[in-house]
Design brief:
two-stranded antiparallel sheet; single chain; mainly alpha; Ribonucleotide Reductase Protein R1, domain 1; 19 helices; about 450 residues; Fumarase C, Chain B, domain 1; 6 strands
């Protein structure tokens, strides 16, 4: 059992306690980051004449060899033999380069080492997740361009409310995922300070150049307080919060797709590649990918709550509880990356039933507000117009007839201000087209929104 401590102990760790304490089974995921951080640390030590150039070169060569052999499978990472990824690297380095390897840990603690590894890992994953979100936005934009004239009902309370277009509806999700990218960008900037050189909590007596180490690793600078540097997990909480919001957006969209895919709506047909069948009912084509994404949202929420609970009562500085930060974060990252990728594929291959969507809007009295506005434009107070159109809607429900199917005489029996031009005023096309304020579904507004979205993706 390779351990980085033991001098003051007279007995071996109990086998079960050792396994309970060990983290190699999951923190081996940080191998690349651990070696990247170690290489920067060694270069700084040589620059400060704490190591010789020969020792530096031996250690750097050994670290590169360990990473190459581990990634190729030539050097297996054993959970039985090593306590954590740090002991794996150091033990193998000493085996390969001898005495120089024992100097790797000079001026460094596992506390600032693991804090660095997690920051490097999360920073890398932020870039990867951002790339997936950008691809999803590109897919959304393509669909928005295709469906500017695909009319559908807009909903409030899951009740048909006003007519809109599929492009407008998809544009709402475009904005959600754009904000998700913005949150990740903010976090990446805010977390970009380097903990290395903080030691266990109070720095070190060695003349380290923390600014140099930070620059080698692409940080904006060193963390300002060494105690905070080793105990800070705020960035993980922010990260998990951002991932939870991404999953919430995916879940909301998935819920709508599930509803739209139902026999009652038939707005969409999910491609066979993103559907499954039933083991007993031959007719079934189930939206399982969307349902799984909706279900996995709770899994990511759980990671956030787990991390908040772990951190809520920890005294400064480092406590072993913080080892529990890794598995929830790793799982949340894997879940979010997988869900975005699957969702994008499902969305890109989905077929939209334009006729069904338009007919649903036409039969849902979604033009009732426009009928009331028609009367207002002829001098009737809005509250009176609202009441008159409400009575018209009630009659339409009783007779299963949309407003535009009423004869002019029938309309005039409710209000003499109705004239023949009401039919053009309350058509779906007119209802949508007249709404051309910023962010609205009218063609001019949507063309402006799409142009802005194209410019945004071109820059990002």
């Amino acid at each position: 059992m390779a351990q980085l401590w033991g001098g003051r102990f007279t007995q071996k760790t109990d086998e079960l306690a050792y396994r309970f304490n060990a983290s190699i089974s999951f923190d081996q995921r940080l191998l690349k980051q651990d070696i990247e951080g170690s290489k920067a640390h060694v270069k700084m030590l040589a620059k400060q004449n704490i190591l010789t150039n020969d020792e530096r070169d031996k250690i750097l060569g050994g670290l590169d060899g360990i990473l190459a052999d581990a990634e190729s499978g030539k050097l297996p990472i054993s959970g039985q033999q090593y306590e954590d990824v740090h002991s794996f690297v150091e033990a193998n380095l000493i085996d390969r380069v001898g005495k120089a390897g024992k100097k790797l840990h000079t001026g460094r603690s596992r506390n600032d080492q693991v804090a660095l590894d997690m920051k490097l890992y999360v920073r890398e994953k932020i870039v990867q997740i951002d790339g997936e979100l950008r691809d999803l936005l590109s897919t959304l934009l393509t669909l928005m361009k295709q469906h500017m004239d695909t009319f559908m009902p807009g909903f409030t309370h899951l009740q048909k409310a006003q007519p809109t277009t599929l492009a407008h509806h998809l544009g709402a999700y475009f904005e959600m995922f754009r904000r998700d990218r913005s949150r990740l960008t903010d976090l990446k900037s805010r977390m970009n300070t380097c903990p290395l050189g903080s030691g266990a909590l109070a720095g070190t007596t060695y003349p380290l150049d923390r600014e140099y180490t930070a620059s080698l690793l692409g940080f904006d600078g060193p963390a300002r307080n060494t105690m905070d540097a080793v105990s800070d997990r705020d960035y993980l909480l922010e990260f998990l919060s951002s991932l939870s919001i991404i999953m919430m957006h995916l879940s909301r969209f998935s819920e709508e797709i599930i509803i739209w895919n139902s026999n009652e709506y038939q707005f969409v047909e999910i491609d066979d590649r993103y559907s499954t069948g039933s083991s007993i009912m031959p007719q079934k084509k189930n939206p399982d990918m969307a349902e799984l994404i909706r279900g996995k949202t709770g899994r990511v929420y759980g990671a956030l709550i787990s991390m908040l609970t772990t951190m809520k009562a920890l005294p400064l500085a480092y406590d072993k509880d913080m080892q529990e930060d890794k598995e929830p974060v790793f799982d949340a990252i894997d879940t979010v990356l997988g869900c975005i990728h699957i969702f994008r594929g499902m969305l890109a291959t989905m077929k939209f039933n334009r006729a069904k969507m338009k007919e649903s809007a036409r039969k849902g009295f979604t033009n009732a507000t426009d009928a009331a506005d028609y009367l207002v434009n002829r001098g009737l107070p809005f509250r009176d117009a609202h009441a008159i159109v409400g009575k018209l809607v009630l009659k339409g429900i009783q007779e299963n007839k949309p407003l535009e199917d009423f004869t002019l005489d029938e309309l005039k029996s409710f209000c003499p201000l109705f004239e023949k031009d009401v039919y053009s005023a309350i058509s779906l096309e007119a209802c949508v087209e007249r709404r051309n304020g910023i962010g609205a579904p009218g063609r001019a507004a949507m063309e402006q929104e799409i142009a802005e979205a194209e410019e945004y993706l071109g820059k990002m």
